[in-house]
Task: structure prediction
Amino acid sequence: MVGFLLFRSVTLTYPQDRLTPLAVDQVAPGVYVHTGVIALMTAANEGAIANLGFVIGGDGVAVVDTGGSVREGRRLLAAIREITDKPIRYVVNTHGHPDHVFGNAAFGPPTIFVGHHNLPRSLAERGPYYLKSFRPSMGSLLDDVKIVPPTLTVADQMKLDLGHRPLVLQAWRTSHSDTDLTVLDKASGTLFAGDLVFVRHIPVLDGSIRGWLKTIDDLAKIPAQRVIPGHGPAPSPWPGALNDERSYLQRLESDCSDLIKRGVPLAKAAQIAGTSEKSHWELFEDYNARNATAAYSELEWQ
Amino acid sequence: MIDRRLLSLRLGMLAAATALGPMQMAPANADDDPWPQIAAAAFGKRPLADGAGLLELEMPARAEDAAVVPVTMRTTLPKGDARTLRSITLVIDDNPSPVAATFKVGAGVTMISTRVRVNSYTNVHAVAELSDGQLYVIATYIKASGGCSAPMTSSAEGETPLGQMRFRQFAMPTAASATTRREAQIMIRHANNSGLQRDQVSLLYIPLFIVRELRVWQGDQLVLEMDGGISISENPNIRFSYMPNGASTFRAEAQDTEGHVFKDEWPVEAM
Result:
C-alpha cells in the first residue's frame, strides 16, 4: 500500500501530458517573450530564470533560448503552438549557460540550432560539468537534459530569414561569456541581447570585464526600439537598459584596478570591490564577490 | 612525489565530489576522514604537534569561485620565540590530489598566500616545519565544490603568453626601512591544467600540465621554493613576506610538467 501511494505521488509530480504553456507576452508584432524570475535555478522554479523568446516570420519561427530544463523548453514549445503552427526553423542560443540551453532537447529535427562559433567547444567542455553541478539544485529535472550544440555557427555576423522577416545575428568578443550572440529582429527593432544585458538582476561575469565594457559601447550603437535582456524586465528601453550595467561594471573595474594597484590581496578585494553598487541590484550577495574575483584575476594581468 | 602517489589513490573521490551550490554535504564521519592516511603518506611517522598559537590558516568559509580560492598561511610565533619557518605544506583533504603544494622558505619568510582549487566541502590542513625540526599542524574547513574539474577561464582575446612572469613588490603600510619585513608577489601565466578537465573533442581528460617547481631568489639567497600540485589555480600566484637582504635583484625560475623552463629577473625596488 505504501509503495502504491509513493508511486502515485511520483507520477502526479511530473504530469508530462499536462504541461502548462509558458506565459508569454507579445512585445511587438510577431515577437513574444517569456520573462524569467530573478532567482537562482532550482527545481521549484524549473530553472525558468532566463528570458526566452520567439519571432514568427512569413514561413517559420525562430526561438531565442530554451530555458533551464527540458520541461521549460517543452512549455515554451506549447506556448508557441498555441499561437502558430508554422515550423520552428531555428533555435538560437545567445550563449552557453544552463538557464539558456538546458531546454534545447525539447526541440527536435528539422529545427536548426544556431550559436556563437565558440559555443560547440564551450558546451562540450562545460556541458558535463554543468549537468553534474546543477544536479543538487535541479534534481530529476535534469534527467532528460541533453547538451545540444549548434550546427550552424556564427563567426561574426549572419542573417537568418524567416520569410520576409530577417534576423541579424551578431557574435561578440569575450564579454559576459565567450559565446555571446545577439539577435536583432529588423522588422520590429527588437534586440535579443542574451546575458550581454542584465536589468535588475546583477550582471554575472564569466568572460572578460574589459571585453564586456567594450561590447556595451558597441551594443549602444544598435538602432533598436527595445531590448530583451537575458534577465530582468522584458522588454526594457533601449539603450537606457545598458546604463546600470555599465555603471556596475565600470565600478567593478575601477575598484579592482585600484585595489590591485594598492596591493590589496584578492581575498580582501573580493569583499570590497563593487559593493557601492549594491542598492541597484537583486542577487547581489550571490554574485558580486564572485564577479570581483573574476575581474581582479583578469585585471591583475593588465 | 607525494602528489602522484596520492593522485592514483584518491581519484575515486572525484566521482563522489560533485556537489555545487547550496546542497549540503554531510561532514565526513570519523571513519571517512582521509587525513590520517594523507598525513602518514606525506609525513611518515613524524609526529604532528598542534600548531594553534604558532600558525594561522586563512580561507573564506565559503568559496566564491571554487577554482580560485585564496588561502593564506602564516606563522604567529609569540614575541621572543626564536624559531623560524622552514616549510609549509598545504593539504586540501578531499581534493583528488590532496597535497596542494609544499613551500620551502628562506630566512625571514613568515607568510605565504596563494590561490587553490577546492573540489568539495573539505578540511584543509597546513603543516609547518619550524627551525626546531618539529612539524606543527593547523586546520580549517571550507565549503566549495567543483574547483578541480571546473572548466578553465573563458578564452579571452590577446592572451598573455605561456610562462610569462610578473613580480610585484609592496610598500608596507608603516615606513619601511632596510631591516623590516616586506611583501612580494610572483605570478606566472600558466593554464595549470589539473588533468581532471575534459577535452571537448576527444572527451578525454586534458593531460596534467602544471607548474611543478617555482623558485624565487633575492640575490643569491633562495626566498621561496614551491613544489606544486594540481590544486594550485590557473596562473599560479604567490604572495609572501620576506626580509630584505640588501640584494639588488630578485629572480625566479619555474619548470612545468612538460619540461618548459621559465626565468625572469627584476630589480629590487626602493620602498
